[in-house]
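Researcher: Please translate sequence to structure tokens.
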Amino acid sequence: MGASSSSLIDLKDNAYLKRFISTDPIGTNDPFWNQFLSFSFVVPVTCSDARLLEETVSEMVHDFSLNNLVSGNFRSLLVVFLRRANELVSSLKIEPQDQDGSLSSMFIWQLQNALFILRCITKFLIENGGEDNFLMQILADPNKGKGEESRVDILLDELLETLMLLGVYVPVRPLSYGLHLEMLNSLMVLLSVQMYSKKPAMASAVYHCVNNGRCSNLAVLFTRRLFQHFLDQEPCPPHLLNPSDDQNSRSLIGGIFSGLLNIMTIGYASKRTSNSVALPAGVSSALLATKSVLILLILTNHCSHDRVVNNPYRLAVFSCADVQEEKQLLPGHTDDAVFFIDFNKLYKAFCDPSNNDETTLLLYLVLHRNAHFREFVLSRTDVDLLVSPILKVIYSASKSSSHHVYMALIILLILSEDQFFSSCVHQLKVKSPPWYQERSFSEIRFGSLLVLVIIRTIQFNITRMRDKYLHTNCLAALANMSAQFDDLHPYVCQRLVGLFEALSKKHTKLLEQGRQISRLNEDEEDMPESENNQDMTIVEEVMRMVLEIMNSCLSEALPKNPHLIYTMLYKRDVFQLYRTHPNLNDLIQNVETVLAFFSSKLEFEDRHISPQQVTQIIETGLKQFPKDRLKKFPELKFRYVEEEEPEEFFVPYVWTLVYHSSGLYWAPERIQVFQPPQELPL
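Model: Translation complete:
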């Protein structure tokens, strides 16, 4: 480090680094800092490279943590960073119209380097001693007098506020992109105190400052900026990316001199020499957008139900509105929105077919809790663009994480609560999507495709996963849409009736197994409920729900679904088995009424009548069918209700996403909030 270029191999012999690590105190005004922070280094963007860096410097950081208690150099570097960062923010506030003129390449470069070193040290301290260890190291100051114990709260508060100020006021340019990345990485590391602790977030000094401190006044501006990064999907400048090289340990510092040139020329050198940059496998070029979404999820899902503190970031996410609403406000009038963003761009960002777990979770949050965005989505007639990526996740349930599938299903359930949505999806015609492998359709109504994917998921779940939560949400979404089923595709009708048939076969099998168990245990008394009885109960519950869905369609949408009648007639024997079943006979009654009516229409026809002719007879009969013959059942309406303690699910889930997608390396053996997998992320 210092003015000359450094490498991982040279770090231990670097004179500037040796002095910083030593017990020698360095004053905040010492010229040392200008030299120390003038190094060129390609910051790792993958977990594997980040791990290599941490393993290389771990011994030095460990020595620093011991010596810092004497030198106080951690605090000195923090003060240097805070002073320089606030100078930059102040200059941008004074001349907001000349933001590019206020950005000095050397100043930004050194500021980013200072923050990078602070972040590396902070991460080590938190992982190896928790939040208390980090706070103790901030306090270390050889010049500190007595009575200054509370200074740690002020420094921590100022650090968090300064990070957010940089995020809000520094424009995103090729020169400043790296500073924004480092700001988000540093904030993520500070917030990671929760990942290494079982205490609630509000017991943490970091989270207390985030929600109650000075930075909470920036919650609206900072949240808006994070959303803007997600909307813009700004690609990372070439000079900040460096392809991994597995053959040597210099991959992290490859291209040092070109990197320095790019920094000093605001990235234009790379643009002149190369049109594209080879990214490491699995790494998105929109690094700023990826990390912004993760920070949004962390800030929004912690301290979500605290009775003392009203999480300002959560409130901002749930209250933002469309810029079009802002334009329609009359002068002098206000709106309940805390800020405005472009919902059209947000919608398109959520429609990206390459979206991942974190994007789906963010969609869930704004769809479920932001009334403005939910109304915006439900008013659109191109909902297939939004729902198709969600269906792909559900369709690929065996390849997706269970949490991702749950969130996708809940999004569908929320959407299905709206009658216009349930009707609209059946008016949209789409081509067979490439991810649907079972059958190819030249054209299919999107509503039929939606129903088809849900039915497939139910069948897959019952035969393999046996997750009651999953099939309950699937059935609830189908039930909500059932009254609006319109011209269901023949294949979809076959799969719907086939679902009931498969359940019937499973029910018969379980019934026989139950009889055998009863014969074997007839002499036993006080036998506990067997697994067979539990399975029987679940199967009957699903069978009843499927019959309720069919009843709803027959009662409300019979004239629009001739193919369903055709399929039910073909499989009439399956329904007749349950005429007298105590839990199903009331629902079978309507099915039998409909099938008897249409059977009578076909009774006197030629036995060799074609399928097309049968369909024509059914379509004619649909106009004549007396609906008053059907028994009335309560309208099927299910609403999604979030759990009373949502943090028990969302906090571990969010940190799992951070672990996999942040590009940082997190020591798996020290994580407390979830059980990390054995394989490391990219």
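Researcher: Any highlights?
Model: The two ends are 27 Å apart (CA to CA).
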